[in-house]
Amino acid sequence: MTHETATLPRINTVDNLVTNFGTHIRTRIGQWNVRTMMESSRLAQIESEMKRYRVKILGVSETRWPGLNEITTAKGNKFIYSGNNNGGSNGVGMIIDKSISSSMMSWKAVSDRIILVRFYSRIRKITIIQCYAPTETANDELKDEFYSQLTSVISNIPRTDIIILMGDLNAKIGTRMQGDPQEIIGSHGIGSRNNNGSRLLDLCTEFNLAVGGTLFPHKNIHKYTWESPNGHTRNQIDHICINTTWKRSLLDVRSRRGADIHSDHMLVTADVRLKPSTIRYAAQRRRELSTRQLGPSDIQSCIRQIGEETLGTVRTERKAWISDDTWAKIERRRNLKTTLLTRPTPELRAEYNNVAKQVKRSAKNDKRRYYNTLASQAQAAAERNDMRTLYNKIRTITKCNTKNNRPINDKNGCMLTSRTEQLHRWREHFQESGATALQHTETDQNTSYTQNSRISISPPTQNEISDALKRLKQGRAEGPDGIPAELLQADTRSAVAILHPILQSVWEDEIIPTSWKQGIIVKLPKRGDLRECSNWRGITVQNSVNKVLALVILARIEDKLEETLREEQAGFRRQRGCIDQSNTLRLIVEQSVEWRSPLFIHNIRRFREGI
Prior knowledge:
This protein folds into four domains: 16-272, Deoxyribonuclease I, Chain A (4-Layer Sandwich); 319-398; 457-561, no CATH class; 578-610, no CATH class. The protein starts with 26 loop residues before the first strand and ends with a helix. The chain is α+β, with helices and mostly antiparallel strands. It has helices at 42-52, 140-155, 195-207, 304-311, 324-342, 346-383, 387-398, 419-438, 462-471, 485-489, 492-509, 544-561, 578-595, 604-610, and strands spanning 27-33, 57-61, 68-72, 78-82, 92-96, 104-109, 114-119, 126-132, 162-168, 209-211, 226-227, 234-235, 238-243, 250-256, 267-272, 520-525, 536-541. The strands form four sheets. The chain has a seven-stranded mixed sheet with strand order 3-4-5-2-1-15-14, with no helix packed on it. Strands 6-7-8-9-13-10 form a six-stranded mixed sheet, with helices on one face.
């Protein structure tokens, strides 16, 4: 299951993907059973530990989040997760640092226990599998199902890929025994082997995966990955494995006892260095112009470069809602854990658990205050009729973000697993939709028009261009030219002087510039299964200059068309939208139901489509 993009004119290739693997680069990956991510501030705490230990890719187990999705966190990192439908149990995910998130090629959610992500490098592709295996006490049927799925997943990975298998596998490998393959198990294992350990060993032997935790000499305290709540039992049950062919690229594997998220599992990290690859940076995304600081003297030409130099760009950083007091409690909990590692007394453990409860309680209060502030801002925006701010606040409160990337299917119902495949599918879908619309709009290019037409066909005048500029709606997304409406409306007189000869030349030559015909397709969800492209509708964001010309033509048509329309006609008319008529019809239906009177509605299908 992968994510899709909303911009279709250009398809990304591997040449503009970021790569973070090479002989001169030491990349740190890790895996962590965090026990739950349902608590407030849990994700922010995990990202803080990632930054502290310089982990670029972190696999997490027991997320307990429902469904599957790909989101961007408040710190700009990418979080991919897969859970069951109801949530509350199991769940796996992967957090990818923003510095290398562009190197991700695709991801696939197999179940609430297995997820895999594929990364790009110039020499070899890298597939990382994050797992959460059943516990040792689980029944054999559940274990067989898990390892059957895992075997199928690894079998379908291209043979040329570098495979990294990691997660909470609940498997105790133990020390190397007689008959164990040396290329699979090193001489630095710890503990005794259990049933899950034997299953994992068979899997690693079948696919030639080396268990990283047994390859490097460390103190036992840096090998244990799980500790019982009372501190009496320790085991090595979390593992990071890699192809035996690339075993030398694995520089170190160890647990990080200092990482704290109030979990009985420890953060396990691995330093990886692979074959040479060139770092290629992704093309920078164009940012929204800060039009609030725009003045009449700022506009001299309709060029985005000057707009960026004069106005700057808007930064989309999210405001952190966790208070300093909560972070202080988190730091205190971390310090207590460090002390607890060297002096594990019952009093200190009780204090640690008490501070952990304070962190949870403080984070909930912070989140409540944050949402109350958003609600107050939404109320203030509604009172001053600022609909844009109001809807943005509502989306933040309800977490209804249509920009979240979702998996899609091809025509045959098969799930697409790469970004390029999804882009081709979106292009195919919108091209088919556009072809159907074009069949009804094609006209004879040789049609001649006479001066007797009721609608004027003379070139646009300066007054018409000025009126069109005033009709441009502010706060709208920019087209491919990157010029917002505010940039043209800052000094209407100068903008008219620039646009008038251009529009006049286009009108007289009857040739629309190629760049004006280009647009950015933005997809919006409808009802139904969002994995089907047919349940999305696309809108095209056009260039601002093209909108000006369209508004000039629309104004001429409206003046003549208004005289011929019926009084009852609504939709695409000034002060005559369909909302009032829909509400009127709804009241009629409600009254009819209340009084049990018969009611007949003609053309109900079109009515539903309109709504």
